[in-house]
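Run log, item B.
One chain of 369 residues. Sequence copied directly from the ordering sheet:
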Amino acid sequence: MRLVQIVARFRLAMLAGGAVVLLSVGGLTCVARAGDAVARPAAASGPHLPEAPSLIGALRRGANGQIEVIDPTKEQGSGRRLCRAGTVCVGEGQPYATLGAALAVARQGDTIEVVGGTYHETDDVTTNGLTIRGIAGRPHFDCAGLRLSGDKACIVISAQKVTLDNLEISGAQIADSLGANGACIRGDPNTTFTVRRIECHDSQDGILSASRSIVVENSEFYDNGWNGQTHNVYFSGDCDSVIVRGSIFRDAHVGHEFKSRCRKTEISDSTFRSTKGSRDLDIPDGGDTLVYRSTLVKTAGAQSDEIVGFTAESCHYPGDMVLKDVRIVDERPDAAIHNFDKCVGHPIVLDHVTIEGPPPREIGYVIKR
């Protein structure tokens, strides 16, 4: 028997919570916590799902040199200044009274911290790399009765790599003649942004975006939707990807809880509840779509009987839609999961989907694993 020599290189790195061993064998790198079995490659029989995310939050290096988590609900500064050092500080008694004033002086890569309170203003973020973070509570941008920035939204994203963190936004409304689609957050074309710990409600749209890529984490959108063209969130335009983690989309007055025209839509650990509006999930143009460890709720009062709609309008981006480890709670005997089959040969795959209530009808190419 011929000996096969396996050369393994080990590197030990310290992470929060213990050591991690990186084992490289023949070009394959596996990761394991100290004391755990070494991870093996995922089986090829289904989509590989990442582990449930640990909700850590934003990090910084403290005065002692150690990495620590930023808690945005608490004060970060000292004395009369409530923000941490090195940030642009907004709030009553702080260097800048409004977010608009802070945006006028902010430079690429700055962090703007907004002290908890109510702000009656609308703003356009035009500087790349900004983080706008609420601290000492959750600041509320109440746009009710205001003319929205660019006749678009309470906060317009017109730059790259913008992050909104720990903000409440509400009251966005524009006239019918302007489209009746005022949004809490509007993403302009060819931009990228992340929203984290955002509460958005009582607007014509929650997020209305033509951005290229978007990340939504630990946020909640509810009581939005004005007419059949507005939704809790709507990702349109030339969108490459939207990634959603740990978020809630519920109780749209009309329209869909979640609508995406992106090439890739990936959703994990999230809840969609349709009580008055239309579909829980609407993916009208196809695209690779993965929904896992999430819950879809359809109540008797919803306007539409469809829980999921896939390729209802076109097959702009051929791809499958996979629901894996998803829980469906259904109150309607006529509810449906509907593949309009405009992407011929691309199914809706139900992989370990559990159902409470009447089983929804399966229309079009729908397969079960």
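Observations after the first pass:
- The CA atoms of residues 141 and 169 lie 5 Å apart.
- Residues 1-34 form one domain.
Flagged for discussion on Thursday.
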